[in-house]
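Read as chain and fold; for instance:
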Amino acid sequence: MLFTAAFGCLLLVESPAESDGTQAGAGPEPETATRLQPRIWKVLLLVFVSGLLLMNYNTLLPMFAAEQGDSGSGYSRLLASMGAGSLAAAVMITFRSSWFRHNFLIPLFPALIAVAYAVLPSLPRGLPTLLLLAIYGFFLTGFITMSNAAVLREGSKRDRAKLASVFNMLLNGFVPLGNMLTGIFLHYLGVSGSFYLISGSTLLFLVVWLAYSRLKGGGDVHVRYRQSPEARPHHTRER
């Protein structure tokens, strides 16, 4: 139901051609933004999978802490480490935003999170685990920020509010479903098996995503941080 609602919202987003004031009859019928800008689709697909598989820490970490023999304070330390990593990413984005404008980081950060999921069960408890969870928080915050900025910059100015709504729905709306799936994984596979399954599924998706993107669009796999149509010089829009 949530995906259907998000899909419907995305189809209602007007194209940049419409927002630039293209007159009826002056050319072909304007296309929707989803058809005109496949890069938006690609990033939103990454966001959907990340919300479904990589934001389930509130289900995994309590079981992980219990398996390690930690009390409630141990679980609190795990969450605090994630928060520290997220804070570090937020500070870097604020003061060194240019470091987060590399296109390849958008698929790379989910891949690194998946690798962290695969490594986490084998780490000894204590400082190594806390450091890895801080890295997880850093990558997760970085990915959310970069993907959100990429989607908004690819869309036209008047459509950004709609795109932001779709982005948040795909990212946060599927977290409950992801938590439910994680609970099923934990029941049948245990903590380590759940980490491995989520990690493998995410990495497999990213391989397919990258291969499909290159097959369909070559260099179009990269999300460009370009100026919006409204910010371009007047003579470049009127051709």
